[in-house]
Amino acid sequence: MKVILQQDVKGQGKKGQMVDVSDGYGRNFLLPRKLAVEATAENINTMKMQDKAKAARMAEEKAAAEAAAEQLKGCQVKIKAKAGQGGRLFGSITSQEISKELKAQCGIDVNKSKIVLSDPIKSFGTFEVKCKLGSEVSGVINLLVIEDK
Q1: Within a 10 A sphere around the Cβ of 127, how many other Cβ atoms?
Q2: Cα(124)–Cα(103) distance, integer angstroms
Q3: DSSP-assigned states of every residue in 93-130
């Protein structure tokens, strides 16, 4: 019996896959629990349409991420921070602050969870901060930390 999985099923496959299972397993376990639907022509067609929609959505997201990466190249973000003796900051510059200033200064909206800080920024100067914008797309934010007087 051929079925299309509606959820990941251990030992059978992932969501959206068409798999061949025994008649009893399909009829008595997968179908009643709505883990799968029978592979009729209509259901196969629906599965193909969903795959096309998913591919189009992924392509659209990748294009948007690449456009954002291009915008990041020409933008420098300036953040003012207070410091003590020796030029060390009180606290550190967080990804949330970077995200907020990036939106205010350049108009680019990047979620704070997509900004990758390898080490906390605790001094003045220029930094290149990596930013994961999409599945395979990453950009670099040019960051300038200056003293707030």
Answers
A1: 19
A2: 21
A3: E-HHHHHHHHHHHH-----GGGEE-SS-EEESEEEEEE
Does residue 18 contact residue 4 with C-beta atoms inside 8 Å?
A: yes
Buried b (16+ CB within 10 A) or exposed e, 34-60: ebbbebeeebeeebeeeeeeeeeeeee
User: Is this prediction's pTM over 0.70?
Assistant: no
Q: How many CB atoms lie within 10 A of CB 93?
A: 20
| pLDDT score for 23 | 95
Measured between alpha carbons, how far is 40 from 38 in angstroms, rounded to an integer?
6
Distance between CA atoms of 107 and 101, rounded to whole angstroms? 9
Over residues 53-97, the pLDDT tens digits come to 999 999 998 888 888 888 888 888 899 888 877 777 888 888 899
pLDDT tens for each residue of 118-143 = 888 888 889 898 988 887 888 888 88
Structure tokens at 16: 């959206």
CA distances from 89 to 49, 84, 124, 146, 147 (A): 54, 6, 8, 10, 9
Asked if 142 and 76 count as a contact pair (C-beta separation under 8 A), the reply is yes
